[in-house]
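Hi F.,

I've been meaning to write this up properly since the lab meeting, where we talked about keeping a consistent format for the predictions we share between groups. The idea is simple: the sequence comes first, exactly as it goes in, then the structure tokens exactly as they come out, then a line or two of notes. No screenshots and no reformatting. I'm using this chain as the first example so we have something concrete to point to.
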Amino acid sequence: LDLDPNISDAGKKQAEKAGKALAKLLPKDFKIKYLFASKLKRTRQTLKIILQQLNSNSYPKQYLYYLVHMN
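Output, unedited:
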């Protein structure tokens, strides 16, 4: 039993769809100040996929790096 699985293919599609929807809703100059994710791999993978759909300058890269790479 894997207690920390990777995101599923369906989860990837849902995250991409959510990211695209956010990109349409948020103003172009919107700045994300804080990012939160659990330590579960699939949660961090979901966050990364969503943020890839947003303008790369709209989130603090140091937070993304920390959340995606923490063990």
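Notes:
Helices lie at 9-25, 41-52, 61-69.
The two ends are 19 Å apart (CA to CA).

If this format works for you, I'll send the rest the same way.

G.
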